[in-house]
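lol so apparently i was supposed to do this last week
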Amino acid sequence: MDNKIKVGIVSCSGEDLPEGSISRLATLEVLLKRKPLDTTTICLPLYIAGGEGDRLFAKNYPTITVDGCDKLCAKKATEKYSGRVSHSINVKDFIKDGEEPVNRRNLNNKEKEIANRVANEIEKNVDRILRKGRD
Ligand code: SF4
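anyway here it is w/ iron/sulfur cluster bound
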């Protein structure tokens, strides 16, 4: 496997909404467990504050952003400073009718299930981007 290409995953840092915590849990699941060799992350607050290394990375490598709400902070910041993202995920799109995440700290099983769905979407797109990069 060619591991030269890495995909940057940028999660929003929303502390105020359960969906922000879900976006970080899903991102960590992919970074640490599912695709540790194929992915890396960018610290969004540092990135916004002017982290040159992170901005350069996102200019040169494909990125996936994961946001907790329609404000899409991770996507907007990445596109503002580094250019178009390869894929953008909004946790809201993975919440089924009748599900209502409520916890910001200790996620319950339902909220973890939503995070798992989001992680599946991240993983699917990491694979797609890597396949495309190798073609
Ligand atoms: S996308 Fe929404 S949840 Fe995430 S940091 Fe922005 S406002 Fe907060």
